[in-house]
Amino acid sequence: MTEFLDLHSRTSKALRAAAEAGMQRHGLHLGQNHLLAILWERDGRTPGEIAAAVNVTTPAVVKMAGRMADAGLITRRRDDRDNRLVRLWLTDAGRALRGPIETERRVLEQKVTENLTDTERGHLMSALAKVYQSASDLLGGTIPAG
Amino acid sequence: MTEFLDLHSRTSKALRAAAEAGMQRHGLHLGQNHLLAILWERDGRTPGEIAAAVNVTTPAVVKMAGRMADAGLITRRRDDRDNRLVRLWLTDAGRALRGPIETERRVLEQKVTENLTDTERGHLMSALAKVYQSASDLLGGTIPAG
DNA sequence: CCGAGATCGTGTACCGGTTAACGACTTGCT
DNA sequence: AGCAAGTCGTTAACCGGTACACGATCTCGG
Prior knowledge:
The first copy, chain A, is mainly α. Chain A has a domain at 31-96: Winged helix-like DNA-binding domain superfamily/Winged helix DNA-binding domain (Arc Repressor Mutant, subunit A, Orthogonal Bundle). In chain A, a hairpin with a 7-residue loop joins strand 1 (74-78) and strand 2 (86-90). The longest helix of chain A has 23 residues, at 118-140. Chain A has helices at 3-24, 32-41, 47-54, 58-70, 92-96, 98-112, 118-140, and strands at 74-78, 86-90. Chain A has a two-stranded antiparallel sheet with strand order 1-2. The first copy, chain A, contains seven helices and two strands. Chain A is globular and about 50 Å long. At the A-B interface, helix 1, helix 6 and helix 7 of A face helix 1, helix 6 and helix 7 of B. Chain A binds a DNA duplex through helix 1 and helix 4. Chains A, B: Keywords: DNA-binding, Transcription, Transcription regulation. Chains A, B: This is HTH marR-type domain-containing protein. Chains A, B: Pfam families: MarR. Chains A, B: Residues 1-133 form the HTH marR-type domain.
């Protein structure tokens, strides 16, 4: 029963583990690369902005940023104009990871899909997109019907 | 970049959230249904057995079992013959959830794949299976090459 | 029969994520 | 000017998962 859900979650776990292993080769933990990717694109963003971009809650970003600051990948600095805001800046170490991490990620994507033909890959992407859409709709439709 | 990985993880998150919502309607947390499913099939298993069956580490099962025992879904009892072993037994409350939870899960699977034709669903399953295989191979292949 | 090793559950310390509560700071309106 | 309301980051308490260390217990060989 629930063939698809089971297969998907098993796949999810395997991919997660593979990604984790790949990231750890560069001293990163899973998820931190997403945060870095945002900062690579543009420095000095706030936790809230990053959270929205990565589709995660703000506290998650705050905690992760704390660990990454301890690890010397980024620094936290208060905004001068609006003192509520905190802005995250890359350190040289954080900036230096860009190339290696992006490569690592590309390689993983390639390895994981290497047994698929182009057609299969296309089917997979479009079907997955539909599932994603349905699942998102399900979540959004939770509030109504008062 | 990394189209597939991104789409998959987004889908994963949406499915996870949807499953969580569904389970909470019955007072369960995500993941607990897997543990219950094992016990529904056969009572009195050990944390180690369950961990292997669900493909999770033993401490994860121990912690979850603790919470579920507190919630009155299962009870823990030491094995008489081998005192190292602990066996988990369903309470009436835990047993009663079987029908509702299995239905909930089937409904979710159906809703999430309802926009797929049979062909699409078949393609999705087989492609996902290949990805799963590749990812698993990647993990297994971490040790060698000394 | 007894000690070395294997086995098993548990505790601790992590990571990543969530929701809810909180305090500090801005803004907007009177 | 000053206060109410909104915005923002942080903290705390959860859940699920991992790796690692530990102590209790069983088993098997001498």
